[in-house]
Amino acid sequence: MGISKITVRRRPGAAHLGLLRAGALALPVAIGRAGTGFDKREGDGRTPAGTWRIRRLLYRPDHGQRPVTRLPAAPLRKGDGWCDEPSDRRYNRAVRLPLGGTRPVSHERMWRDDDVYDLVLVLDHNTRPRVAGRGSAVFVHLARPGFAPTAGCVALRRADLVRLLARLRPGARLVVEHG
Q: Where does the pLDDT of residue 173 fall: very low under 50, low under 70, confident under 90, or very high at 90 and above?
């Protein structure tokens, strides 16, 4: 059994706050600083509205054991990154750092000093087809203190994400509503 669909809806009056519903769970979340939208663009601060398949869990093995989940899961390693440079062939893909080449390539560092990426659900947003500039590194991850806005991800408290992980089944989908 397990949960196959989770839904995120923006809270009225707060562009960057939302509510995630998964079965009987109703959990507060932070979303993009500019709310949600269907026309996601790199750097616009919006969480992309739509339906996204949850592909896998990435976790920091030095910050706790592998969480209980039926999702595919892999430990993060120092040097893991995610390319967010629209002009690069590796755009919106996991990469190993440092990225080689003759010029700097913009990227997210997955092994961070804060705990935001200790638990990361990778979504299939902008993957088939992968379109340059349509948004990259859109994840479900841990919230910053006070549910500070994200750059476009969905963020939960650690305890809430751990509870959710234990209930999600492989192939589960995230639905982000607009409005």
A: very high
